[in-house]
Design brief:
Residues 32-397 form the Aminotransferase class I/classII large domain. Keywords: Aminotransferase, Transferase. By secondary structure, the protein is α/β, with parallel strands linked by helices. The protein has two domains: 3-42 and 294-405, Alpha-Beta Complex (Aspartate Aminotransferase, domain 1), CATH 3.90.1150; 60-291, Aspartate Aminotransferase, domain 2 (3-Layer(aba) Sandwich). The protein contains 14 helices and 15 strands. The chain has helices at residues 12-20, 45-52, 68-82, 98-109, 129-136, 161-166, 185-198, 221-227, 243-246, 260-273, 279-289, 293-313, 340-351, 387-405, and strands spanning 32-33, 92-95, 119-124, 140-147, 153-154, 167-173, 201-205, 236-241, 254-258, 327-331, 353-354, 356-357, 365-367, 370-372, 378-382. It is globular.
């Protein structure tokens, strides 16, 4: 067996299951889960219609690169959303959701034979696929802290020069999971300069880009690259998907875009990896990428939901409206002494509401003279259910926090 498999850590939801083992929640309350970031809004009918009308495509093997119509749907959306002009033949590829692409990109980019051992950087807290991808590519993960005082911006300045010298891949997530923070142009400028100096690839995870709460939509890494005089997107790959944008997590559909030289190597890897998108999924994807009205409606639903829930929680939790995404990243009350696991367990036991302990989304690391888990003392709440259910969950959390003060 691959010995690197032994280095993988349990997934957050496995740890949550273990945390709740033996706990019987109060029968007074029906279960409400804010734990898993799975979209719950209705899938638009026209996407389902496009899928069912194309089932005949199941009789043929699909091309790993997808056909030109599919790739043009990607570049058309990039043009509409970001005013970017990419070549559909060389600068985009279909993927089966951003999750599998994040993992397989690391296998493509990282050279495991390099000496000293290569490094893959990720934010801390982070999406655990980044860590698993790094470990199974033979790299050493390095966790870069997000700073609460700076709206959870990643502290790239804290990374030692000797680590940058070994870095081959940097994962960024903007809008961020779990914090909802969006990277500003100055932050991209800093990261691009570091990439030019050290030669590492940047993988920009942008799957939450269409759920935002400010007037200005989130900046894409591709958009930042052009603004900063890098129209070739060198050493940059952006990844996005339809799961959150179009409420089709089961479709497993997305695309990657950016540096043509990396796209070419990624296509070679994927040809052997067996990760082609089926023709039926491609047809549904073309329909989805070509329509914005359902995206506007989806965003309006999230805005209304967050506007209803956030003010309820602000008096009892350290929480505020994020820049984007569908998560609230909240600090637990002082009475819990930073014990996010105990908070989540007791909330589940007393009020049958599930939230995810923030420490499960981060790693204990040492920065300067201090060792810390930057997720400790926080919880992640995914506001994916209907508004009424999310409001009910928030009201229970308020009662739970007020009870704890007595």
């Amino acid at each position: 067996m691959n010995p690197l498999l032994s280095r993988l850590q349990p997934y957050p939801f496995e740890r949550l299951k273990q945390l709740f083992a033996g706990v019987t929640p109060s029968p007074e309350f029906p279960a409400i889960s804010l734990g898993i970031g799975e979209p719950k809004h209705a899938t638009p009918g026209f996407i389902k219609d496009a899928l069912s009308a194309s089932l005949g495509a199941l009789a043929a093997y699909p091309a790993t690169a997808g056909d030109l119509k599919l790739r043009t749907a990607f570049t058309g959306w990039l043009k509409t959303r970001y005013s970017l002009a990419l070549d559909p033949a060389t600068q985009v590829l279909p993927v089966n959701g951003s999750r599998e692409a994040l993992f397989s990109l690391a296998q493509t980019v990282v050279d495991p034979t390099a000496s000293p051992q290569p490094v893959v950087l990720s934010p801390n807290p982070f999406y655990q696929i980044y860590e698993g991808a790094a470990l199974l590519a033979g790299a050493e993960p390095y966790y870069v802290p997000s700073v609460p005082a700076r709206n959870f911006a990643v502290d790239w300045d804290s990374v030692p020069e000797e680590v940058w010298a070994r870095t081959q891949l940097v994962f960024v997530c903007s809008p961020g999971n779990p914090t909802g923070a969006v990277m500003a142009l100055d932050e991209w400028k800093k990261l691009f300069a570091l990439s030019d100096r050290h030669g590492f690839v940047i993988a920009a995870d942008e799957c939450y880009s269409e759920i935002y709460f400010r007037d200005e939509p989130p900046l894409s890494g591709l958009e930042a690259s052009v603004k900063l005089g890098r129209p070739d997107f060198r050493n940059l790959i952006a990844l996005t998907s339809l799961s959150k944008r179009s409420n089709v997590p089961g479709l497993r559909s997305g695309f990657v875009a950016g540096d043509a030289a990396i796209i070419k190597k990624f296509l070679l890897y994927r040809t052997y990896h067996g990760s082609a998108m089926s023709g039926a999924v491609a047809a549904a994807s073309i329909a989805a990428w070509g329509d914005e009205s359902h995206v506007v409606d989806n965003r309006a639903q999230y805005r209304a939901k967050f506007a209803a829930v956030t003010p309820l929680l602000e008096p009892v939790l350290d929480v505020r409206l994020p820049d984007a995404s569908f998560y609230l990243w909240a600090g637990v009350p002082e009475v819990w002494a930073g014990d996010d696991e105990a908070f989540a367990r007791e909330l589940y036991a007393q009020y049958n509401v599930t939230v995810l302990p923030g420490s499960y989304l981060a790693r204990e690391t040492t920065y300067g003279a201090h060792s810390t888990n930057p997720g400790r003392g926080r919880i992640r709440m995914a506001l994916v259910a209907e508004t009424a259910e999310c409001v009910e969950a928030a009201e229970r959390i308020v009662r739970f926090c007020k009870d704890a003060r007595r």
